[in-house]
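User: What would this chain look like folded?
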Amino acid sequence: MSKCKIDILDSTLRDGAQGQGICFSLEDKLKIVTVLDEIGVAYIEAGNPGSNPKDMEFFKKIKNVKLKNSKLAAFGSTRKPNIKVEEDNNLKSLLEAETEVTVIFGKSWDTQVTDILKTTLEENLKMIKDSIKFLKSKNKEVIFDSEHFFDGYKNNKEYSIKTLIAAKESGADVIVLCDTNGGTLPSEINDITKDVVELIGGKIGIHCHNDIGMAVANSICAVQAGVCHIQGTFIGVGERCGNSNLSTIIPTLKFKMNYDIISDKIIEELTSKARYIAEVSNIPLTDEMPYVGNSAFAHKGGMHVDAVCKSSDSYEHIKPESIGNNRRFLVSEVSGKSTILREVQKIFPLITKDSKEIQNITNRLKKLECEGYKFEGAEGTIELVIRKIIGKYKPFFELNHFKIIGEQPACNADFSSTALINITVDGKTEMTAAEGDGPVNALDKALRKALEVFYPELKDVRLVDYKVRVLDSESATGAKVRVLIESTDGEENWSTVGVSRDVIQASWVALVDSIEYKLIKDMERKMKMYF
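Assistant: Here's the prediction, encoded as structure tokens.
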């Protein structure tokens, strides 16, 4: 079988919007359309204009935006049973959206027709035919989504195939086989899709859900079986367990199957674009996500790190930079000297593997991990530990004392805590106070407020993430906790960690490390400017 050109339809803004916790604003949708167009997907399924006013408003706004690479598609259903196609409000909405492409779904599972639509099998075929012919008469490119196709095929093959024939004979440009329930196995996808490609011909597509974790595998199997059109969402968002993850499918097609799916230049931006879409969607991109996740090219075991340094393909299936990601070496109790050395040499290049400092640092990190510290993703704290052991550390301030006052119920809805802090810098004492939404927020504000008198650059620093992990839950309220915070100055992000049986103390340790790391980096930058 010769390779066909694979078209990608992204449904982040339609099917992805049905995922839990996702609610796109009009501005969010416009931002994501821009990124998807830059990536170069063939189609952007941007919403269902007949389902809600927000989607219709979006289609009105997007008319003024000229896309360079992608076609915009509006989504809807076939006409309702027993009404004229010209009178169907959903189809009217599709025309009002004024997109070049329309995607309509129709039932291919006989029991869905009789039990959900409450109509006859013959009427459902007429609904498919009438709807597609109507849209084609309006010069639309029509993609027909055969809903529940695989379940329908397994239940009543003859009828499910009839729905596809009805769509093809009515002029559908693409016929998409949908694993709507997401429960079909790759072997079934392969066999059934091959059968359809042989029986129906033309351009066949695939739309998979991830309810058994097979959406990506099923999409790839469908390509191997002959489909030329794949639907999915970026970072796999979608209803229930999500959809086929295009940020996994696209590089797999390009690097593993040699499909010229997107340009080499754009594939090198895949990680940043996937993370941008995740940010706009307000959905965390999991560290373990293939290709684009923060841990996709992270190495922790000492022997693994050593092997990757000698030959990257020993534990990496592609070069991380080919999709815009980075190789990371994680420092932990299972790290070997090679990992520790690489971290140390980032700061002190002349240190060698045989230096006594390397063994001292390794021992110290392992001791801290025994106490509950975890240094993965806490680069700020790692650097400070290294500096302290090598003797290249000088504290930027001295804490005299702090006090936190809580007020419940809070008189001010925005602030429930007040922090008082007294510090000394170069013999000068500063005492200040700040209110915050909780004790840690108040302490963070008070500390930075006091230090800004001496270090004005801290005005740009803010917390962007705060996580607490209970380490020994059986100790109940006396349990040890680990606090991981992420900070930013608007240009760079960094993380630090603190551990204590007191969550305030653990937070304080992480906050101090965060500020000292920032001040050290600023000091280094200033020194480079002069030398």
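Residues 398-530 form a domain with the Double Stranded RNA Binding Domain fold (CATH 3.30.160.270). If you want, I can go into more detail on any region.
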